[in-house]
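2.7 Reproducibility. Because tokenized structures are sensitive to small changes in the input, we list the exact sequence used for Response regulator, including any N-terminal residues retained from the expression construct. No trimming or masking was applied before prediction.
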Amino acid sequence: MRNVLVVDDEINICEGIRTVLLEAGFGIEHVWMARNGYEALDYLRMEAVDLMISDIRMDEMDGLELLGAVNLEKPNLPVIIISAHEQFSYAQEVLRMGAKDYFVKPIDVPLFLKSVRKWLEAGEIAAREMTASSLTKAFERADLPPPETYVLNELLETPGLTEREVRAVWNRAGLPDSGPYFCLMRVRLALGEGGSRKEAVSSLKDRNLFKYAAANVIAESLQQWAPVIIPQPGSEITIVLPFNEEEYGRLPVQPGHRLGMLGQLVRDNISTYLRIPNAVGISSVKFGLQSLHDLKNESSKALAWQEMMPDQSVFYIQDFDDYKAEPDGSETGKEAFGVVNHSLLQKIQAFLKDNCNQKGLKLQDIADHVHLSTNHISYLFRKFLKMTVWDYVLKLRMEQAKKLLLTTDMKRYEIAEAIGYEAPEHFSKLFKKYYGVSPSEIRSAGSETPD
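Resulting structure tokens (single pass, no recycling of outputs):
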């Protein structure tokens, strides 16, 4: 069964879309309705949502800001935008930000439902059709990499080259005059098994086939960033991501948020379509092609942290600035690793205790404060607290709400406002889901309900 989230500040539009979706026969179990981006994020953090449909113009957090937050927190979630804006440039911007489709109000219902069905079924169809035979047909590659691969690997491995030297080789390899900023990702494939049946991959030919299939998946996943993909000897692939001045200017202050999202996209797509376990190491962003060697070292060092974090799969180099020990798996290294993790977690928890009531709190806000990527923050919470960041925020908010209900005469809407919720109805719904009773029942009982 599938679940859809509809976001619009006009409740009659939400209800109309909800009715249309439930009557469409798409196997939709739940259609949740949110009146702004804040409420939408709460649903996305608490429920399994397969598709989001959102308006653009809303009070508080609008659709564009919501789309940006979704890109960071749920990068694989398909989003359909509905809007009163008819300008083509506006639609282009929304689609550039990752929306799958764009409809102008009043929407054409048959076309709208066609799009809904397409994006609800997209993941299922892709997985179902990715059989061993179709893999071979779709991703067939020569056994040997193209000649420029060897030249580019030399660039990555050779220190001390000037920008002019690297640029000359780059151009001779027929690569575009891109940049001037670059980031490197290094993907390590566990080529012991793969394909729709997860069969053993033993021959060199099959291993090469899957490696070049992975390169093709990467190219498709990152096509709008114009990546340069360099297969390495063995089971690794290097990705050079160029950024022009405008693109570099759009990167957040802490670029690990955006880069981590791209790394997760690569990791997820290789796992989904090829059934190959993999990990991704990500460098920082540096100026000039002469930095490729340093970026290669950074991405390799980031990937080395998998030794200490085997249950993690995406590693951004600057997340490990505070980790003084090398990721060598030694007892000393493990002890130092644990101490730093504990310290970072305490820092994040302290920030959340002071700021959990902030409306529209986003992972990026937390990450900017503690200078970590959103991916690493999520890992720390999953690993050591056995909960998500948003489970923890909800816990703080609900505990504070219960305390206010039992110790003050504040009205429901005042409590909702105090703990970061725009609508008292939304607060009541979350409160009842968390405690099993409504705010009024808690207050009437006059005593705490067991957790």
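Residues 2-129 form a domain with the Rossmann fold fold (CATH 3.40.50.2300).
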